[in-house]
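Troubleshooting log. The previous structure file for this entry was overwritten by mistake, so regenerating from the original sequence record. Sequence copied from the archived sheet and checked twice against the printout by T.R.
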Amino acid sequence: MSLGTVAPGRPYQADMGNGFVPWRRDVHYAEAREVAISGLLDRLAFTRDSRHWGYKLRFGLFEVSPDDMHLIASAMQAMLDFPSPH
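Regenerated output below.
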């Protein structure tokens, strides 16, 4: 598991070989420890009240609220470089 924030800049295509040229965004990753998401499911806005919350993760990037990012970062003991929501 990793934790990071999308870097400024435009998406770009990267040649992965065999005709596979997906779009990419650069990400600033933070040092973090791995934690089970099960302890956070009822507290995160994007997982609360949804039995099928993991389906959202299959489509790549999606926006996570500042509150959720701070909750995840705290659980993973990660230092992120973005403003606090409060």
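The chain is about 10% helix and 10% strand. Archived copy saved in two places this time.
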